[in-house]
Design brief:
It is a single chain. The protein is of the alpha/beta class. The chain folds into two domains: about 190 residues, TIM Barrel, CATH 3.20.20.80; about 60 residues, no CATH class. It has eight helices and seven strands. Strands 1-7-6-5-4-3-2 form a seven-stranded mixed β-sheet. Helix 3 runs parallel beside helix 4 and helix 7 packs antiparallel against helix 8.
Amino acid sequence: MKQLPLLLIILGCFLQIQAQETPFSRGVNLTNWFQAPNAFQIPFSRYQKSDFEDIKSLGCDVIRLPINLHFMTQAGHDYVLEPLFLQFLDSAVAWAEELDLHLILDNHTFDPAVNTDPNVGEVLTKVWVQMAAHYKNSSDKIYYEVLNEPHGISDVLWGSIQGRVIDSIRTVDKRHTIIVGGSNWNSYRNLQFIPQYSDTNLIYTFHFYDPFIFTHQGASWVGPSMERLSNVPYPTILRGCQRLIRFSQGHGLRMNTTIILAMETKTAWNNGWT
């Protein structure tokens, strides 16, 4: 079996309107596949139908497919989807349908170092109308995730933009479920600020990274980098703070912030977090 570069339970836990259960429960992100700079650099041979079969054999019923969607377009400013991209994606969709897997088409046009453009609604509506028109007749197990982890944009503005995207999709596809989330990296803390959209075929997603120093140990993409931090246990115990203090001193973290994180982890554990 091919070793997946990132095999994990979907980070975004999902809530459906009226507290319904989602139709899937266990899955993986297939990263670094459709996250290429453009359609012509997609390493399509990275995965095959046999990999989807392997994923299903592990007990998974859903695949989340991160896509650098805004860059899967032709040159120019009209954001017309590149036919080669759709050809590649059609294969992945067909494999999921043949194996009766749920497939989330995740718009992962995302740079953690750059705030979400307040004018992002223009490209979102254009690409999603095309995606929805192309896949409107596909299996009900295909899902549209509007945008992964918008950040640096207000809840009010993002909620309005997301609402317009939903409405745009519904002009061509009234059947498929749309996955929506809040601002602030889809944080669970921002679920409360998502508008009550009138559309009833939505799944609300949130991402949970607490305690951050535990979930992101070894991460090179955060600032300051935590790449050299490792072996932080869960729950963090107080005597582990000495190692965290040494790490923070050497990598530009404020010591009090690090200690607070460690204390919060221990407190959370004592209060029954699992």
